[in-house]
Inverse folding.
């Protein structure tokens, strides 16, 4: 039995390491090497957060400088950037925005949650000493570590659900606009739209798996096994591979369409007759008279 548990522990460790390095390498490639017209920096940041999610599987009680529950409370607010980055990437890709987005209002929940977590951790490590922080200390003392740990997944789930609804409305509005435009053949915009739909559906599927495997059992008081933590990471890693293959196919298709559009000859403009036959006859007669005079 111990050997069986040890096998799963090793598999979980290697899965976390391999998934984290894979997503991190992909993010670096997209950010610094892949040239595209859209905001690939948002996609690179999105993949970096997924890499962080994988790499947290390497953390245990023996290799953390602070208690592990405090460390995870400090890392969890960073995940509040995940869905805003996905939403901004989809919106900028569909709208073809060329200006840099910069600091967006969508980042505020992550910053506020992170600030609250830092204050909570500092006060817990100092033993809630009174002083100028007395009012905050008393407030956070009522919110013990178990309540704060349970509050973060709930807030993150609410935010994720909100952004999936916003993405669905964004895709629906874009599709309605495209219906008014006659497109006889596949275009680059259609390929981009399909890629964004595939990326969003993959994230939605993995979020649902995490809700039913990790979050709901956590709230019901069930003990989370190693398999419960490994299954969302395994499905997410498989999703990343499927998205990579699908993205490569879409890039190839886009390159083919760009090449065909570049080789397609321009249609000559048809010069329509703007003069009547009588006017042509008159001009011809005038030219003949001029030639006889010369």
């Amino acid at each position: 039995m111990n050997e069986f548990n040890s096998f799963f522990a090793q598999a979980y460790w290697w899965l976390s390491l391999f998934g984290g390095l894979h997503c991190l390498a992909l993010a670096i490639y997209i950010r610094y090497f892949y040239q595209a017209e859209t905001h690939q920096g948002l996609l690179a940041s999105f993949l970096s957060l997924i890499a962080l999610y994988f790499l947290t599987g390497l953390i245990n009680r023996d290799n953390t400088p602070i208690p592990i529950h405090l460390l995870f409370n400090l890392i969890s607010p960073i995940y509040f950037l995940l869905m805003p980055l996905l939403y901004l990437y989809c919106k900028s890709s569909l709208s073809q925005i060329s200006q840099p987005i910069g600091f967006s209002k969508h980042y505020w929940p992550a910053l506020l949650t992170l600030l609250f977590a830092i204050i909570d951790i500092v006060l817990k490590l100092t033993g809630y000493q009174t002083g100028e922080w007395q009012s905050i200390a008393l407030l956070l003392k009522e919110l013990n570590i178990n309540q704060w740990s349970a509050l973060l997944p709930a807030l993150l789930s609410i935010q994720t659900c909100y952004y999936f609804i916003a993405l669905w409305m964004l895709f629906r509005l874009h599709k309605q606009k495209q219906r008014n435009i006659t497109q006889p053949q596949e275009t680059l915009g259609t390929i981009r739209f399909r890629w964004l739909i595939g990326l969003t559906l993959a994230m939605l599927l993995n979020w649902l798996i995490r809700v039913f495997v990790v979050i709901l059992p956590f709230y019901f008081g069930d003990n989370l096994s190693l398999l419960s933590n490994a299954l969302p990471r395994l499905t997410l890693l498989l999703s990343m591979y499927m998205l990579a293959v699908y993205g490569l196919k879409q890039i190839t298709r886009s390159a083919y369409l760009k090449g065909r559009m570049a080789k397609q000859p321009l249609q000559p403009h048809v010069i329509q007759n703007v003069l009547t036959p009588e006017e042509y006859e008159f001009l011809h007669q005038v030219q003949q008279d001029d030639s006889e005079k010369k």
About this structure: The CA atoms of residues 73 and 148 lie 8 Å apart. Residues 226-263 form the longest helix (38 residues).
